[in-house]
Write a structure and sequence with these properties.
This protein is mainly alpha-helical. It is built from 7 helices and no strands.
Length: about 170
């Protein structure tokens, strides 16, 4: 098992979650360069693998941190935003992989994925809202996974609409 300091570092993304103004947005922004590095070092398989690893270790860290702080969903926990943002960026990674483009050339799609994820993470509609209301360590991660999936679908649809009319 990971030690307490490392668990806190993972849950708060090495302290970024302690930024008082919009910590979730900072977590999503921090995910972008991390995603870029993972993409360049490992490609699409690494992006998917890293997403799963972040979700698993992030979830474990959220459980530990929530118990330690006796909170349900502390605002400084942002590893869930990183995971959700990674998922929102999956269509961009898939497009870069299949088209053999450098992912940096797909920056409009990355911005779209970021904005869509932040929207669905903040607004929390439908199933995302129901999961968020559970207030468990699992729901802290799961609502962001769901927001990431909806953002990925939205990013894909917006991209298709853009290319259909351009």
């Amino acid at each position: 098992m990971l030690n307490t300091k490392l668990q806190t570092s993972i849950a708060t993304l090495f302290g970024i979650g302690f930024i008082r103004v919009a910590p979730g947005t900072w977590g999503s922004l921090a995910a972008l360069p991390i995603f870029w590095v993972v993409w360049h070092l490992t490609g699409i398989i690494g992006v998917f693998t890293t997403s799963i690893a972040l979700a698993y270790f992030g979830w474990k860290s959220i459980i530990h941190y929530s118990r330690k702080t006796q909170t349900d969903d502390a605002s400084e926990i942002i590893i869930d935003e990183v995971v959700g943002q990674f998922i929102a960026l999956w269509p961009i990674a898939l497009l870069a992989h299949t088209s053999k483009l450098d992912i940096i050339n797909l920056w409009p799609g990355c911005i779209c994925a970021f904005l869509c994820f932040r929207f669905f993470d903040i607004v929390k509609i439908g199933l995302i809202a129901k999961v968020d209301e559970l207030k468990t360590p699992e729901s802290v991660m799961l609502d962001d996974i769901l927001a990431g999936i909806v953002a990925a679908i939205s990013t894909t649809l917006l991209g298709l609409i853009y290319y259909a009319f351009s």
